[in-house]
Amino acid sequence: MKQRILMGIVMAIIFLIPFYIGGDVFTYFSLILALMVFYEYSTIINIRRFGTKFFVGAIGVILLFSPLLFEKNADFQISSLLALVVFFITATVFNKGFSIEKAGTVLIGVLYFGFGFSSMAEAHIEKGLAWTFVVILTIWATDSGAYFIGKKFGKRKLAKTISPNKTIEGSLGGMMTAIAIALLLQLSLNAYENYLEAISITLLVSIAAQIGDLVESGLKRHYGVKDSGKILPGHGGVMDRMDSWIFVFIGLKLIGIV
């Protein structure tokens, strides 16, 4: 437990420094996180480490950051994605062990992590430090509230086949905790336009965070792994810590908030 707490503090410091600086520093930091998570993902789905397919996928992740890093437009992103599709489909023809299902799985990872982390960096640029900070604290509050309330009062399973320890009571408790924290943060930071917006976005973020957590749980259960990696002692991999974040910022991007 002490190791887990100490590592949590170190992780928070490492993240908060570039987060506070913002700008290109946080954008490049977000890209590094995206590449680290893609690496963990590639090991889970059994793509050869630092092989051709891994490198092409990593380039795809970088290209999804292109509007933020290289001032490229959406057309460049679309062209990049089409090139990735062509490459991986062609790879299934010339590599007997590389199935169309595996090609699709790699492409999903490129899109999920590339858009997820680039959307987080974009949120910081477009909405500012305070707004993005409140969103991230909402995710943390949801996770903590769901854990402690679920442990104390949880009885009904939320998704038994994917994550047996998660309960409906814990899920609702996580949402209520997130709303309470968001209202306190709104009072002190005034990150949202009003309290109604604060509650609405908090509910959206809280629900998306829990779905993101279940998505990764389903992935790991499918491939029979406990953690996405071992880089963070006591916490597993980077994906294990940021699975909720990815889904949240993609969701905020999709509905036009970011």
From TrEMBL:
Keyword Zinc (UniProt): no
Name listed for the protein in its UniProt record: Phosphatidate cytidylyltransferase
Top-level EC class as recorded in UniProt: transferase
Recorded catalytic activity of this chain's protein: a 1,2-diacyl-sn-glycero-3-phosphate + CTP + H(+) = a CDP-1,2-diacyl-sn-glycerol + diphosphate
One GO process term, biological-process aspect: CDP-diacylglycerol biosynthetic process
Membrane topology reported for the UniProt record: Multi-pass membrane protein
Keyword field contains Transferase: yes
Transmembrane domains' residue ranges: 5-22, 28-47, 54-70, 76-94, 106-123, 129-149, 170-189
GO cellular component, one term: plasma membrane
